[in-house]
Each structure stands twice: as structure tokens, then as C-alpha cells.
Task: structure prediction
Amino acid sequence: MAQPRPPRLHDNGGRDFDAKQKRKIAEIYQVLNNEPVDIAPLRRMAISEGGLLVDEIRCKVWPKLLNVNIDDLLPTPEEELRENSKDYQQVLLDVRRSLRRFPPDMPDEQREGLQEELIDCILQVLQRNPQLHYYQGYHDIVVTFLLVVGERVAATLVEKLSTHHLRDFMDPTMDNTKHILNYLMPIIDQVNPDLHDFMQRAEVGTIFALSWLITWFGHVLSDFRHVVRLYDFFLACHPLMPIYFAAVIVLHRASEVLACDCDMASVHHLLSQIPQDLPYETLISRAGDLFVQFPPSKLAQEAAQQQAERTAASTFKDFELASAQQRPDTILRQRFRERLRAEESAKSLLATKPRTNRFVKLAVMGLTVALGAAALAVVKSALEWAPKFELQIFP
Amino acid sequence: MAADVESSLELSLSSSYVGPLPPPRSRILKIIVIGDSNVGKTCLTYRFCAGSFPKRTEATIGVDFRERAVDIDEERIKIQLWDTAGQERFRKSMVQHYYRNVHAVVFVYDMTNIASFHSLPLWIEECKQHLLTNDIPRILVGNKCDLRNAIQVPTDVAQKFADTHGMPLFETSAKNPNDNDHVEAIFMTLAHKLKSHKSLMLSQLPDNTIHLEPASKPTMTCWC
Result:
């Protein structure tokens, strides 16, 4: 096993930060040096602050997280791969246009070579798995693996990822993708019902988050370091974690959203322009926290009801428009609240229930470290996140 | 069909009610831009809204939105362009939300790619399914006319197709700097036509109510 070369650390945290990272790197290598490798601590470290830190470690840990044996890689693709592919033209178009995914200082020749590898990598996985369907944005995911682990390992990892985490996006239709997007609003509703109501009234939909979800944010973040940090997190978590992360971004921008015009265009426009300076580590731990509090099983029913609720919301909107002169905000909001009251009390139950056994759950899911080394901080942040629920529990 | 137009304008006008006296709102024209992958939808919309050809564009995933305010006959109008993904799977289940309340549709094909021209009937059919009316103005744009040596779609063929479907045809290049006025003209023509469209006329809302002029049957004209 090669000794770790000093990582390219950023100069933003001073010495403590440096020392902490060095310690973490040493810990990761220690885990990797034990046979058989214990995956649980690797998952925890992929989630916790800084993730896997450097690409050299990612090369070693990503295969473990995906349970891929790097001694058993996909073969080199056959000569006729491109001719035999029905997706070649579309993939070619998308890869040719994906210049922004490559480091800006990379020489053209090298980039072009990687683009060729990217095409082959995508087509090979598609060819071996005829049940999988290419979507625009898939190339944004594959390029991330290509740049970190190189062509052969990338193809193997991406195949595993595509048959698992990305499976729903690769169905013949995007119905399942749409279904996953339907989790977004219920998550937001749990934390900030006002924001949720505002977005429903604007009828913004969820398409602003589509590219976030199906590219794991690779399409929208311009700094590659942020992309790989998120990939560490997502690879170590449940496949629905990206939608929790999307919700956390929207929640993080709540005041901006509420300050904009309550119409589809304004809200869509605001949200689809993702800020590049997001506090990633904080958001990651919030996403983990939300996942524990409101796991997908709890939200599944609400997500399924999204369609019906949307109809109800638009009826409500017509009503709202019709009574535009009756100080709608006050009156209608009261009525709306009344209707929601029953739901709200159900939600407060929902919010308290998981708290009792959350530490058990954390351990099971390997999220403990994501939520901060200190358990106190975890509890504190949870309280900050759910003041409304707290008030309802202790009126 | 008039009801559709009305409700969309109501949304545009009343959506951000902030106080007892709403600020004068500019009217909004919502235009959806559709067509095959890589025909240049993003470049066209970018060109109109930002005034330049974008250095790098990528595949559009889902729907992008661009906006520009223009003054027409001393009235400020916001032109909203909704730029959609070209890949078929997106339009099937994702894009329909964005057809709602549109005032005009722009179909784009790539003049150097005959397949993108042959896809147009599919797009037109798709559009019909999403829009409850045929009265919404539609225009056809052949893009990339600067690539003279690679043209696969002759103008007379395209013109015939446009006539059959009652659409005006524009051939342009989002890239060619000399065509800047042309791209501008396409959308401005559309805005002018929509503005003078009887069914879109409405008074401003000093008294918080919205009056709509009786909608007269619009006639489809060629604006070439």
C-alpha cells in the first residue's frame, strides 16, 4: 500500500484544520489496510466533515462504498461499440458540449482524449445493460468518476451505480424520477411550512431541482471539489439522499425565496440559479439530520399524494384569485391553516417519534459522524431546525 | 380558449400582490421554445436575452428560464423565454408543466440537420396535446444558417412546411454577429403581434380588478 502523499489542503482552516485532516487521512488508510476492509467506518468518514478529502483516497474508497472489486474490472470495450449503439448520437452531442466539466487549465488535447473515453464509458455501460436508458445529465455523473478514478475503474463503478442508485432515472420513462422529485415538497413542508405554502402557491413545480437530482449536482456546481465532496456523501448514503440535499438547499434559501414574486417564473429562476458558495458541510449534516428525522418511508405517502395535493392547491389558488379584494392573505391563510391543523398535529407526532430512537438509527445508518462529533451539537441543531414542532410539543 | 389566455394574464398580473395599491406591473409574455436536442434553443434564447452568443452551452436538463424587458409603444413588457430540454424522455413527463399559460410557441430546427426538421411534426403534435387551443401564435425558426456549406434543409421545403402549418418561418443564426438584429426581430415581432392581439388586451388594474376586452377571434397571419 502506497503511503499517502500530502493532500492539497485549502488554506482556510489554519493548523487545527490541517491536523484534523491529516488525522482523518491516516484513519482512512488504517481502515483500508485491514483485510477484509470494514465498510461502515469508510461510510462514516465519507459523510463526515470534508468527506474523503483527496482524490487519491476516493480512488480507493469509492469502489469499496459501491462494493466493487477493482481486481475485476469491466473489459476494454469492443471496437464496434459506437456503431452498435442507438444512443451514440445523443451521447456524442452531450459530451461534446460538456466542456465545463473539465478543469479549465487542462490542455485541449488531453480533454478531447477524456471526452472520447467518456463516450466509450457511457456506451459500454448502456450496451451491457439494455434495461438502462440514457438521459441527458448521465454524462455529468460519469465524467466525475472518469476524472477521479480513470477510465476502467470508472466504467465498473458507474455500471454498479447505474443499476442501483441511478436505476430510477434510467427507466424507459421519467415517471419514477418524477416520483422522487415528489419527495421534495413534503420534506420542505416538514421544516418550513410557510416556505412550502409559498412555493405551492407560486406553482413552481420541482423541475428546478431535476438537474440537481439526476446529475448529483454535477451539472450545476462549477467547482469540481464541491462535486466530489457531494459524491462522497451520496455514495455513502441512501439513494434518496440527493433529494434531501436538494430540499436543504431550498430551505437554506428560504428568505430569498419568500422575498421574490410569488409566481412560477420568479421562483423557478431564483432556485435554478444555484449559489456557488453554499456552506456544503453544514448542508450535508442538515440533510443527514433531515433524513433521520423524516426517513423516506415516512414521506412516501405524502409524496404519492403530491399529485392530488397539487390539484387541491390550484383549486385553492383560483379561490384566492377570485377573492383578491378581500385581503386574501389574512383570510385565506387562516382558512388554509384550519384545514392544515389536523395535518400539523399529525406532523408534530411524526417529528417527535424519531427523536426518541434517533441515535439507534444513526448508528445503523452510519450517519453519526455526519451529524458532528459532539452529540450535543446534534441535538442543538435539531432544535434549531424544528422550533415549530418543539412549540407544538411543549405549548 | 379565451379562458386560457385570461387566466394566464391574471396570473401574470396578480401573482405578486403586495399591498393596497399594487405597483404598476409590466405585462408578461410567456414563450416556450422547443425542438430537438442541439438545434440551438439555448443559444437563441440567450442571444435574445443577453445580446450575445454564449461561449459554452451545455445540454439543457429540464427547463431553463430567461427573461428580458422590452418597451413596445411605450409600454414595458417582460418577455419570458422557457428553454426546454431536447431529449424525448424529458418532454414526455417533465416539460408539460411549462406549457401552461404560454402566449406563444417557438419551434426550432437545425438547418444543417435534416433529422431535426423531420421531427417537427412530432413537436407540433406534442404541442397540440398540451395546449388546449390552436390560436396561440407559433413560429418556426431554422437555426445555424451561417453554416452555408452544411445546409440540409432547403428554404423552399421549410417554407412549404411552415405554410402548411400556418406558421411564419425565420431562418437565422444565433452565432453570426450580423444576425443579431435578426434574432432580435424574431422575438420582437412576436411581442408586437401578441401585444396587438385583441384577446391579450387588458386594462391596467388601478381598482384591483382585471377587465378583459372581449376576445375577438384572432386570425393567423404570416409575419414574414
About this structure: Confidence is low (pLDDT under 50) at residues 1-7, 310-332, 345-395 of chain A. Chain A is about 65% helix and 0% strand.
